[in-house]
Design brief:
The protein is of the alpha/beta class. Helices cover about 25% and strands about 25% of the residues.
């Protein structure tokens, strides 16, 4: 038996099959809920260092862009479409389980182009969507302004994606955590993971450091690492197919003088997401600044410039909030989902980057299937975590 620590610690023994999930954000809670939904007899524990659901997912804009996000056909598109098809039922189930409406709307996404190059990019996207049989409509300048009268007059064309949508992450994330608790998942806050305990090629326990210097060993038959941008900081985690690194994204919430859009508006990296209360979420920056949190004047200026380039009337909008989150970026662009080939009983649910909200339903099903040893809803080795190739060393955290 190997472990990160040489000193013994108090051992928490749970007689039933025990699944420990590291990370109680959206992904961790969604996996825990899905496991209990399928196997109520399982003991499932979520371990969270801070406040459950307070990290990247809660700070997201909530676009369900199954067609708006992928660059073309491939594993990411397959995941995105499969997850989007589950979102209506997922939202209804959460309402039944918690009494909370998470703000899911199939409101559509309008991608607009302001240059000839951008028009050509939309034409390329429309081509592969047509070949894939996906709903879309190519709009000229006049049709784009008929669809959204407030879009900037210099618009050259647009691509209308009626099946994409949005949800409110600030409502969604705590609701999924609440649904997991209601299903019988134990949620523990203030847990500092010190390492994974491995014996005979399989995971045996998760070691925790206590605030008083004590060490606790939580026995586990399966461990799911759903630590978001902090995945590679889990001590003793075997190296995966690709590293997961933090990417800061700044967003803002505006109150426009009047309603300007009833759908998600997108142009390149800029987007506007309407909320039911009449406000707009504006996103987003993409900043490779390591573990730096917080917001910047330059970031807000970038967001406001992008918003006004889409809808000039937003020059008179009131800025209500400005915040940031750290997104978990997988180096090869695909999430890490499912069992790790190097250690039996070890699973990952990480690296979902900008698509964590969209992919939550399908990712939870894939990871739960791996834990339970059943066939996943989608099988593709491209998103498996990959073979072990050493250990990720404990690195300095932010």
């Amino acid at each position: 038996m190997t472990s990160l620590r040489g000193r013994p610690g108090a051992r928490s023994t749970i007689p039933r099959t025990h699944v420990v999930i590291i990370g109680a954000g959206l992904m961790g809670a969604a996996v825990g809920r899905e496991l209990k939904r399928r196997r109520p007899d399982l003991a499932v524990t979520l371990l969270e260092r801070a406040i459950p659901g307070a990290e990247a997912s809660a700070a997201a804009a909530g676009i369900l862009g199954a067609q708006a996000e992928p660059e073309g056909p491939g594993p990411l598109l397959d995941l995105a479409l499969a997850s989007r098809s589950r979102w209506s039922a997922f939202a209804r189930a959460l309402l039944q389980e918690t009494g909370v409406d998470v703000g899911y709307r199939a409101c559509g996404v309008l991608e607009v182009a302001f240059t000839d190059d951008a028009v050509q990019r939309l034409a390329t996207r429309a081509h592969w969507m047509r070949l894939a049989g996906l709903a879309h409509h190519t709009l000229d300048r006049q049709e784009a302004r008929q669809r959204q009268a407030d879009v900037a007059a210099m618009v050259r064309g647009a691509l209308w994606l009626p099946d994409d949508g949005a949800v409110d992450p600030r409502v969604l994330v705590p609701t999924v955590v609440a649904a997991a608790r209601a299903a019988g998942v134990a949620v523990r806050s203030g847990c500092i993971v010190a390492g994974l305990e491995v014996g005979e090629g399989r995971v045996r326990a998760v070691q925790l450091d206590g605030p008083d210097g004590s060490c606790e060993c939580v026995q586990a038959d399966h461990v799911v690492v759903a630590a978001g941008a902090w995945t590679d900081l889990v001590p003793g985690l075997p190296a995966c197919r690709t590293p997961v690194t933090p990417v800061r994204g700044q967003l803002a919430r505006l109150r426009p003088p009047r309603p300007v859009t009833d759908c998600v508006l997108k142009a390149g990296a800029h987007y506007l997401v309407p909320r039911a209360d009449g406000t707009l979420i504006v996103g987003a920056t993409t900043e490779h600044v390591g573990w730096q949190r917080g917001v910047t004047d330059a970031g807000l200026a970038h967001l406001l410039a992008g918003a006004c380039s889409l809808v000039p009337a937003l020059a008179d909008a009131t800025v209500l909030e400005h915040w940031s989150g750290l997104r978990p970026h997988a180096g090869d662009g695909l999430p890490l989902l499912g069992p790790h080939a190097g250690i039996a009983g070890l699973h990952l649910a990480s690296g979902l980057y900008r698509n964590g909200i969209l992919l939550a339903p399908i990712a939870a099903e894939i990871v739960a299937a791996g834990v339970l040893g059943t066939a996943p809803p989608l099988a593709d080795p491209a998103w498996l975590p990959g073979p072990a190739s050493g250990l990720v060393q404990r690195r300095k955290t932010a």
